[in-house]
Design a protein that fits this description.
It is built from 16 helices and 10 strands. It is an alpha/beta fold.
């Protein structure tokens, strides 16, 4: 536990770090705001304004080629008491920040009253140079190779797929990692003519916040990181921590089913039934690991009723399958995740070591669908990562609020604890329940975040919010 007053005071001590500087020799044009395009899935017109911003393709060559980023804004509903701008990133990668900014259901009315909520589609997403790989006509090999021959075949398939996707999506494919997006974020701040911004990132969006705070910490008024990516994770932790988190969450499901009479598996041996379901799924003519992917996606909510039903149906011979991710996640991760983390597996021995760690830490779920899938997707990416992982270094940033569910399938609670330790001037809020994303879970999580955004007040100690 940390004393709030002492840590807050330390934030204003001289650190020896130079203040953040705007990118030299380049200035953004003001954003021209117009009505947003209609959403075909909604009968109501969007409640907000949309625009575009031209930024350099390569920030190291600010006067070279440029690209267009889509930006959206929902103005503060109480403009007389407006605090400023709240930049929001829902994560993914692959989700649309502009859609999120215009969505009325996430932030509380109090926050929407006092802030202009702004989002910009990151490079390769939404309406900002959308990255989309072409579907292969050749079925991919399984991503759990049993021997060196199968590993070599998978690596060659991945190399070809990455090369084709990169060629199809140039030039933005080579300039889409999160460090680049952080510089785009500051360009948005400058185009809005705001001295400082508040930021709320969720899931992969927390990495954008962290990297912005590292480079432009003195441009941050407040920062909320909800369900936290740990950029210091190496391959072993990237896969292993997520494998352990998936097993912990499955344990939460089993406990729920034991005490819930309406659970489709109530009264049955859950671990044994799960093993039966996995064996039945392997016999079906469906994509490899479809059952684990389906159950893993249900854990985000979590939707325990559906987890129980899909396991029961699979044991009985039925096979409901749904997609895990929307947008262009499977494409954009090659240009973003594979450049933000060193997920280069160079040999079958290296793969075997990673797989052994996954199974050691997550024997029930047999690893994490997300961690394993991302590591194997990066198998064919050449060269070192453009934005290599490292410990968080934010000496100029204000106090940061870090949130995470205790049982999170995508961003393990251990990652939030680690980021909290790396940012001494931070407060950790733990939602003591399952799922992905903490802010909307309870009055406790909402009130801590809202008070911080509205007043900059944080609790004196780390907070535990009951499930």
């Amino acid at each position: 536990m940390r004393a709030f007053g002492a840590v807050l005071a330390s934030a204003f001590l001289v650190t020896g770090a130079a203040p953040a500087l705007a990118d030299p020799g380049w200035s953004p044009s003001p954003i021209t705001w117009t009505a947003c395009p209609d959403d075909p899935d909604s009968p109501e017109p969007p409640d907000g304004e949309c625009g575009t911003l031209r930024v350099p393709l390569d920030w190291d060559r600010p006067h070279g080629p440029s690209i267009t980023l889509a930006v959206a804004r929902h103005r503060a509903t109480d403009p007389a008491h407006r605090i400023g701008v709240l930049l929001a990133d829902p994560g993914g990668p692959g989700t649309s920040e502009t859609e999120f900014a215009l969505s009325p259901g996430y932030f509380s009315p109090e926050v929407r009253a006092r802030f202009d909520v702004v989002g910009f589609d990151l490079r390769g997403t939404g309406r900002s140079e959308f990255i989309q790989c072409e579907d292969s006509t050749t079925p991919p090999p399984g991503d759990e190779p049993a021997d060196r021959t199968a590993f070599d075949a998978l690596r060659e398939y991945s190399r070809q797929a990455v090369a084709e996707c990169r060629a199809r999506n140039q030039p933005v494919f080579d300039h889409a990692d999160t460090a680049v997006n952080a510089r785009d974020l500051d360009a948005v701040r400058r185009a809005l003519d705001e001295e400082k911004i508040s930021f709320h990132g969720i899931s992969y969006g927390t990495l954008l916040g962290q990297q912005y705070a590292e480079r432009y910490g003195d441009r941050v008024r407040a920062m909320v990181l909800d369900s936290v990516i740990d950029h210091s994770a190496d391959l072993r932790r990237f896969a292993g921590d997520r494998a352990a988190a998936a097993d912990e969450l499955f344990g939460q499901f089993a406990a729920w089913c034991d005490r819930t009479a309406t659970c489709a598996l109530h009264g049955r041996d859950i671990p044994a039934t799960w093993e039966q379901a996995l064996a039945a799924a392997d016999r079906m003519s469906l994509p490899h690991n479809w059952l684990r992917d389906r159950v893993f996606s249900d854990m985000y909510g979590p939707d325990w009723d559906d987890v129980a039903q899909v396991i029961a149906d699979t044991v009985a011979g039925s096979s409901p399958v749904t997609a895990q991710f929307a947008y262009n996640y499977l494409s954009i991760r090659l240009a973003v995740v594979c450049q933000d983390f060193d997920l280069r597996i160079r040999s079958f021995a290296g793969y075997s070591a990673m797989r052994a760690e996954e199974l050691r830490r997550g024997p029930v779920m047999r690893g994490s669908a997300l961690g394993h899938g991302e590591a194997m997707a990066c198998l064919g990416v050449p060269g070192p990562p453009a934005n290599p992982p490292h410990r968080l270094d934010v000496p100029r940033a204000p106090r940061i609020l870090v949130l995470n569910p205790r049982y999170d399938p995508a961003t393990p609670h251990a990652w939030a604890v680690n980021v909290h330790r790396q940012a001494p001037n931070s407060t950790l809020v733990t939602y003591e329940g399952p799922g992905h994303g903490a802010y909307q879970r309870t009055a406790c999580t909402r009130s801590v975040v809202d008070e911080y955004l509205l007043t900059l007040k944080t609790p004196r100690h780390d907070v535990s919010c009951p499930a």
